[in-house]
Amino acid sequence: MGENNKHNTYNSLFHWHSFRLKLVFEGIGVGMIAGLIVVLYRFLLEKSGVLLTEVYHALAAKPSLIPVWIGVLIIIGYTVGLWVKHEPMISGSGIPQIEGVLLRKLDMTWWKVIIGKLVGGVLCIGAGLSMGREGPSVQLGAAVGQGFSKVFKRIKIEEKYLITCGASAGLAAAFNAPIAGVMFALEEVHKNFSPLVLLSALSAALSADFVSREFFGLKPVFEFKGLTILPLQDYLYIILLGVILGVLGVVFNKTLLKTQNLYAKQKWLPKEFWIIFPLLISVILGFVLPQVLGGGNDLIVSLVSANFPLAFLLVLLFIKFLFTMTCYGSGAPGGIFLPLLAIGALIGNAYGVVLVHFFHFDSVYISNFIILAMAGYFTAIVRAPITGTILITEMTGSFDHLLSLAVVSIAAYIVADLLGSKPIYEALLDKLLHKQGQDVVIGNEKDKSILEFAVCMGSFLEGKQIKAIEWPLHCLLVAVKRGEREIIPTGDTVIYPGDYLIVLTNEDRVGKINDFLLKMTESCES
Predict the structure, then answer these.
(1) How many angstroms separate the Cα of 155 from the Cα of each of 7, 13, 111?
(2) pLDDT tens readout for residues 398-434
């Protein structure tokens, strides 16, 4: 390794304390840049949403222009479809792709992703597809982190942290929710609660949130005013709602995966034409049921102010669900985050109306069930209960409902887990890896990578001496972090729960070493 490279593996290992401090400052830089890009993305989506409304008003006044609009949508669909075909990393949400990159099983060209996701997302979501901005925002932020690493020639372990920082910043800027951004990075993207990840991701999220609020103001994304706290004696209704959401979350996951399979089986329709199909459906919905177009932000807000009848809520729920499946299955650049929150809000609203009409429940609590259902439905689908609870808390700007949000999230999580449903992003990543084949190697044997693994309670490694473990080839355990201590391991060193193992390996072996050590360090019950 060259002595003139101050970011090499040697320096990262032997200057770990300064490395941590440097990551915090780099996280701030990544957060600021990611915040600016996501703010631009949000701004363009908001403007395109206003433009879309004006388009349908013009079409209603002058129906002869409808064929012109259909022609525009076909051009948009085909153009973005070609783009997705040649750059598959910009398709869909982007969160499974980022998880694959962090596991070193997928490769990503950061500048292509930023351009493709930004332009493709604005065209598709702006044209009315039922997809959200949050998944793309996470991927945009992660691509900024990777770009920062590439431009300044950081090593792979540093790049991994910077990608996580960017992902955290992306979600924070998308929803004005910095704490949720950090928790999502820890709970879903990075999948461990390393203090190093926490500090750097928090720095990035707060920076991005600052930039976002400078442009969009200090108000939360959803303003639910005058909510009354649900009494403790009515928590049984919250648990029941959690059970329903757990079941419906499993239905969402299974339907989404089957929709993707359905598209893939249509051999008569080339992949570049897939996006055209939901765009044409959006024309019909734009006249008949415009509430289901777009991510669903306006739909959620309208549920609080408007008293929709139960029948209309069920129609909205059914059509929004099917349209979201159709849009995401096509591979268009857009996420499921906001649409699933909108579907959850519809479920909660319908649930509240049923309680009011048939069980003489106080109607003042309907808005509570809308909020609770968003958190529970998110948890059932993504299986990130802490993120779900904090996200809805930050998005609504009130901590008064933290207990009820936690209860509904736990109930939904347990039910989804008992039904054997895989977390949606994990299932989508498995599909991506299955498509490309498991033998794809990222990197080369000359470069080295440093990996970090958290040892969970009940894992295979718990209580074992290092010499008693059969470590894979090309894998060197260089340090064990135990709290603030960093232990140079020997054969007699015993591994305890909560330890972080620092492993050195060849870059081309990272994927296999990741798979092996994740199984060894995770709880046997998981």
Answers:
(1) 6, 11, 19
(2) 777 889 999 999 999 999 999 998 999 999 998 888 8
